[in-house]
Amino acid sequence: MMLLRLLMMMRLFSLFLLIASLSEALPHDWAESVLRELDDIDERVNKRASRKRCGAENTDAVYWTDRTNSHFHELMSNVSYANWNYLTNMTKYNARALEDLEAQVDAWFKTNVGTARRFLRDADRICHGTTVKLLRKFVNYQLVPAPANPTTHRLISYLVNSMQQVYSTAVIVDEERNMKRYRMNPELTRLMATSRDFDERQWAWTEWHDVVGRQIRPLFIELVVRMNEAATDNGYRDIGEAWQMSDYDSTDVEATMDRLYQQILPLYRQLHAYVRHRLVDYYRHRNLNISGSIPAHLLGDMWAQDWTSIIDIVLPEEMYKQSEMDAALRRAGYSVKKMFRLAEEFFTSLGFDKMTADFWRKSVFVRSPLDDTAMDCHASAHDFLADNDFRVKMCAEVNAADLQTVHHELGHVAYFMQYRHQPALFRTGANAAFHEAVGDTVAMSVMTPHHWRGVVLGRRMPAPRSRHLPGPGTDLSFLLRMALSRVALLPYAYVLEKWRYAVFRGRLTPSQYNTGYWKLRERYQGVKAPVSRASTDFDPGAKFHVAANIPYSRYFLSAIVQFQLHAALCRTDKHVEQLHTCDIYRSPAAGNRLRKAMSLGASRPWPEVLKIITGYGDIRADRMLEYFRPLMVWLRLKNRGYPVGW
Ligand SMILES: [Zn+2]
Question: 436 catalytic, yes or no?
Fold first, then answer.
């Protein structure tokens, strides 16, 4: 055991030396050398350990884990197919089929988690390092661990599927205008992106929150009780702790988010102040408060989380507009399929494999307006843990926002393909935020004015006098656009997860759910409800990830990590100019490094994986701040004479 510790220490130390010497001059193959080093040390640990004669416990653990992993593989593959069937055709039959399978998986986990825990209690006697890692992954794998009472599990599955169905099938009807029906996708998404009518937006916001939130409220209240029961049955304090262990192998996620929020707050306050005074000008007959919180229905989408679509309002006249980018895409002959081909080509230019034949054959890219099948339109990517079957589900349209989403989803698929050779338990991201970050990192290059003009629009570039060509405002309008999506997201994501952690911990009771939510939004995001809300309303339930019971910290952390990845990959590509101008297209060096890290899946702790790409192992906001530095200067200038903060 001592030897093992010593070797472990050696490994850390030599890694440190390697990193320290690398940070001065990075040879192009340094990621390989870090990995070689790690593998060498692993091998030595395993060899020494086997020389000291591993006992029967070791053999038992290795065989048991191997068998369990195979069984896990088969079960998860079945769940993934059932999940796909349900999401693309939300019938009661498909819901039941999914619930049945989930119940099976849960029962199976319950039978086996005890054994895994028993092996882990004597982890020192297991010489095979990978087995210990697989066992740890197995124990924390489920977001909602198997409760002692099987009925509880059945209820949890039912509640989540019902909430998801409420969200996906909700329709609001405009009774004053031809009884027009609006679903979230595509009608409401389009309305919130394009309507500039204050009252129409407020109507859509209020109806959606009333219709969806109020139906989800009783289901959610029950779900919290049941999930906490499952968590405490498994030794977690509450379900929030189980989520954190499952996504990050640690329980300090809230503290990390607190720290990062404080770091980006000065930038967010400037962005918030600038957007606010532009909105005050734009809706000048509405007497908006120039120094207070902004009404949530005016900020780009239903949740005030991505403000990109109001760029037309906030940009000074001389800069290029969002609608022009959308029109340029259509003029250049893009279809949704062609947007996917474009994204695929970026990934292959970095050395990634092409998408598989199954991907093109079986994915859902668009939703026909005539199709009345109840389908969950929230864009998602699916790994079926079967040979070549990877798919995307999306109801895409041809516009710049969806082009980014296409890259985001392809990032997930590229990740699935990259770690497909790992044991099933490791076929997931280094942590949940990494999985979200890959596609967005790539999209950061795609959306640069240089790449947009040269590659996306290619030969069909607009006329030479167009504002799409380089000009004084081009870089700043691009940066502002990026900030409206990435910077604006952070306080929203922070609040949503902080609110759920408080709910899970019992700090907010059901009668305080909605008021507590708006207190946090006003305090941290500077956003308020557009109409007065009652404690019987349930506005968080009008958000997909609450209805679908998916953690949100991963989006917060991803928005920060992607700037770390972008900066490191640009450095690999020897980019020396300002960070926001970097485009890693056709850079095999950057691609190599990214692919290496992704191919590890979850087989190594995420700080090690982050280190392989960046040279350091913690999540920090400094690269994001560096990226937006020119914008920060510009915002300060524009905000002169206006109040900042709320
Ligand atoms: Zn995603």
Answer: yes
Name the active-site residue from 153, 209, 412, 468.
412
Residue 502 has a CB neighbour count (10 Å cut-off) of 18
Six token digits for residue 323:
């609608």
Is 459 exposed, middle or buried (CB count within 10 Å of its CB: 0-12, 13-18, 19+)?
exposed
The β-bridge relationship of strands 390-393 and 380-383 is antiparallel
Show the DSSP H helices in 394-538 as ranges: 400-418, 432-446, 449-451, 474-505, 513-520
What CA–CA distances, in Å, run from 429 to 17, 23, 186, 571, 601? 27, 25, 30, 23, 5
Tokens found for residue 112: 């086996």
User: What is the pLDDT, as a whole number, of residue 371?
Assistant: 76
Catalytic one among 382, 436, 567, 597? 436
Specify whether 378 is catalytic: yes
Token digits of residue 158: 């039912």
Residue 56 appears among annotated catalytic residues: no
Q: What pLDDT, in 10s, does the model give residues 383-411?
A: 999 989 999 999 999 998 899 999 999 99
Average pLDDT over residues 433-457: 92
HSE at residue 200, side-chain half, CA atoms within 13 A, is: 13
Coil, strand or helix at 419: coil
Say how many Å lie between the CA of residue 218 and the centre of ligand 1.
Answer: 28
Rounded distance, CA 17 to CA 22, Å?
Answer: 8
How is the chain split into domains, by residue range?
Answer: 21-53, 152-300+486-552
185 DSSP 8-state letter: I
HEC string of 256-296 equals HHHHHHHHHHHHHHHHHHHHHHHHHHHCHHHCCCCCCCEEH
DSSP state at residue 643:
-
In the reported structure, the alpha carbon of residue 559 is separated from the centroid of ligand 1 by a whole-number distance in angstroms of 11
**What angle do helix axes 432-446 and 336-349 make, rounded to 10 degrees?**
100
C-alpha dihedral sign at 251, 254, 257, 262: negative
The total of other beta-carbon atoms located within 10 Å of residue 310's CB is: 23
pLDDT in tens, 304-322: 999 999 998 998 766 666 6
Q: What is d(CA 638, CA 618) in angstroms, rounded to the nearest whole number?
A: 34
CATH topology of domain 152-300+486-552: Neurolysin; domain 3 (1.10.1370)
- Please tell me the predicted confidence (pLDDT) of residue 611: 94
Closest by CA position to 529, among listed 268, 205, 155 = 205
